[in-house]
Amino acid sequence: MKILPADSEHSAIFQCIQGLPEGALRLIILTASGGAFRDWPVEKLKEVRVADALKHPNWNMEVIEAHYLFGAEYDNTDIDSSVLAQMGWPDMRLPILYSMSWPDRVYCSEITWPRLDLCKLGSLTFKAPDNVKYPSVDLAYAAGRAGGTMTGVLSAANEKAVEMFIDEKISYLDIFKVVELTSDKHQAELVASPSLEEIIHYDLWAREYAASLQQSVF
């Protein structure tokens, strides 16, 4: 069964690997904008308000999704020095359209979607992730390497923590703390090859445990 990704990052990877022989992919580079706070110093992040964050949502599960969708290892090196890139405007309609039309591409007029003109764009700047400002990146890699129920626990705890932040029950920086504490608590009960029932069980457990931290820790 072929899975056609509709998420923008994974649709880009899927488009790049079309025609590649099995085993040819060794390194996936996922790009992200860094969000509205990428230029903020770490100490200022404690001032982030809900309204600020909702204007520029960020997602942190892409690396785990890419691992399971494309079989790329978390620690890997590339075969040669060539890089395949898929670029476009940040518009979710494009990857969704491609997943619906694959293996064909639907023509779109300039009125519907302006073409990406690299000459007009001018320049692109790439930087390595700031793991001090974004500690969740390391946490996601650790969960991915642990495997089993840990990735589901990470995702569920993150969703609950974000919910508590939106409800103004915890601060922006507390989101990471909630996810980290929930993941640490789960270490002793991690199931390496879980059944569907176990996945659902620990998803619910993670949400309940994350919620309990509001009273006991913060």
Automatic annotation (TrEMBL):
Pathway info: Isoprenoid biosynthesis; isopentenyl diphosphate biosynthesis via DXP pathway; isopentenyl diphosphate from 1-deoxy-D-xylulose 5-phosphate: step 1/6
The enzyme's E.C. designation: 1.1.1.267
Gene Ontology biological-process annotations: isopentenyl diphosphate biosynthetic process, methylerythritol 4-phosphate pathway involved in terpenoid biosynthetic process
InterPro entries xref list: DXP_reductoisomerase, DXP_reductoisomerase_C, DXPR_C, DXPR_C_sf
Pfam families associated with the record: DXP_redisom_C, DXPR_C
Keywords: Metal-binding, Oxidoreductase
Catalytic activity: 2-C-methyl-D-erythritol 4-phosphate + NADP(+) = 1-deoxy-D-xylulose 5-phosphate + NADPH + H(+)
Example of a GO MF term: manganese ion binding
Required cofactor names: Mg(2+); Mn(2+)
Keyword Calcium: no
DXP reductoisomerase C-terminal domain: residues covered: 87-209
Name of the protein described by the UniProt record: 1-deoxy-D-xylulose-5-phosphate reductoisomerase
